[in-house]
Design goal:
Number of strands: 18
Oligomer: single chain
Helix content: 25-40%
Radius of gyration: 28 Å
Strand content: 15-25%
Number of helices: 12
Structural class: alpha+beta
Distance between the termini: 58 Å
């Protein structure tokens, strides 16, 4: 959530920054309602103070034998006035909160305006593979090698699902083990969170209320919104709520976590023909990194997360690039994002395997997450950051396509071989 004082003091500047994300806002009506709300608060407080003062004087008036009937009549009239004003104040506050909740985060000053067309490639790493034979699509490769069973995955759950089998299941688990081993070595705490989260988690993450229809909801007909829980679309949604409504100590920051979960996505819209297979699905595995930092440390933390995600891809020996996203291509909650994008030969294109993002204090305001400086000054909101480290559903296709051989086999990246029985390749079954 945005800082309301920033909107009050610099509405034109805030509107200009939101426009970089394609969000056009006129704050005049909001600010008029905000002034009215604050005036009502002042009036209500004055009326309540008057009521308390008069109420305190009634016992003495009775003791002196004074007639208090007129006073009670005045108090009844005053109470009704307070009730009406409180009701109006409640309506104004609900409208204000709904408006603020619907606004995206402000992009950082160094983030350019516009959408994907303005994304900037920062680095390109690794050698783009070349083949002396006609390379295969990853779907054909994994099916010929018995690694993925798409037909039975669809039989169980429908389109957009698959089943890992034999060497496919081993390779998937090897990837997750490699990621976990690396994050533990780097000093991150391992978390295994619940997969079913309460609706408040979606609000803190910035996904609710605007994007609540994009998640799998656990229906509850008695709940006001029709649901109270949902399946997490990413472990970020759990990790960002880990310290919700808490005040942390400055000495404890930064806090660094990572979590493994499946991710459950509706993935609204039709699948493009070139995205067949594992490129886009309703359930996939992902390791998520997360940090809570002081405001002055969050930019360095973001660069750390970008570097960690890129190093994981580099460790697999894969060709990839890092891109800095334009404002409108960043998610609503984020002020700055870098994508680590992996080369998929069959698509002749790069696909994102990690988004490393800095939310600033946007999520912290929604989740009331603060820290106290060592000098005991007033509390401040923390900054929150996240990055995939990594999602497997696109790394897997990239490995089998970039490492495919003329005989139909697939070389296993060296860092994964200890989890694959020491083998250096996955070979076609005779």
């Amino acid at each position: 959530m945005l800082d309301i004082n920033q909107i009050r003091n610099h509405p034109d500047e805030v509107a200009e920054k939101l426009a970089k994300k394609g969000c056009i806002v006129d704050f005049s009506g909001f600010l008029n309602a905000d002034r009215e709300r604050r005036e009502i608060i002042g009036t209500v407080e004055a009326l309540k103070a008057k009521r308390n003062k008069v109420s305190a004087s009634i016992p003495q008036m009775k003791k002196e034998g004074s007639d208090v009937s007129a006073v009670f009549a005045d108090m009844k009239e005053l109470a009704e006035e307070v009730r009406v004003l409180d009701e109006k104040l409640g309506d104004l506050e609900r409208t204000q909160n709904e408006f603020l909740s619907g606004l995206p985060n402000l992009p950082a000053d160094d983030v350019v305006a516009g959408g994907k067309e303005n994304n900037a490639v920062i680095t390109v790493s690794g050698n783009k593979p070349t083949f002396s034979f006609t390379p295969k699509h990853h779907v054909d490769l994994v099916e010929s090698l018995g690694m993925i069973d798409y037909s039975r995955g669809a039989k169980l759950s429908g389109n957009g699902f698959w089943m890992y089998r034999k060497d496919g299941a081993l390779l998937e688990w090897a990837l997750l083990s490699y990621f976990i081993e690396t994050h533990l070595r780097d000093g991150y705490e391992f978390i295994l969170p619940p997969h079913m989260l309460g609706a408040a988690c979606g609000y803190t993450a910035g996904q609710f209320p605007k994007f609540k229809d994009e998640v799998y909801q656990i229906l509850d007909r008695e709940a006001p919104e029709g649901f109270t829980h949902f399946m997490l679309p990413t472990a970020e949604t759990a990790l960002v709520n880990f310290h919700r409504d808490e005040i942390l100590d400055e000495d404890d920051l930064p806090l660094k976590y990572f979590a493994y979960t499946p991710c459950y996505r509706k993935e609204a819209g039709s699948y493009r023909a070139e995205e067949r297979g594992m490129i886009r699905g309703h359930q996939f595995n992902k390791i998520e990194m997360f940090q809570y930092t002081r405001p002055e440390d969050s930019e360095n933390a973001l660069q750390e997360l970008v570097g960690k995600a890129a190093a994981l891809v580099a460790g697999l020996g894969l060709h990839y690039r890092v891109s800095k996203l334009a404002a409108a291509d960043c998610s609503a909650s984020m002020m700055k994002t870098y994508d680590i994008e992996i080369w998929i030969p069959s698509m002749n294109d790069y696909k994102e395997v990690s988004s490393a993002s800095n939310a600033g204090d946007y999520q912290a305001r929604r989740g009331n997450m603060k820290f106290r400086r060592k000098d005991g000054r007033a509390t401040e909101f923390v900054h929150t950051l996240n990055a995939s480290g990594l999602a497997t559903s696109r790394i897997f296709p990239a490995i089998v396509e970039q490492y495919q051989q003329a005989d139909g086999s697939v070389m296993i990246p060296e860092v994964l071989r200890k989890w694959m029985g020491g083998r250096d390749r996955i070979e076609p079954k005779s």
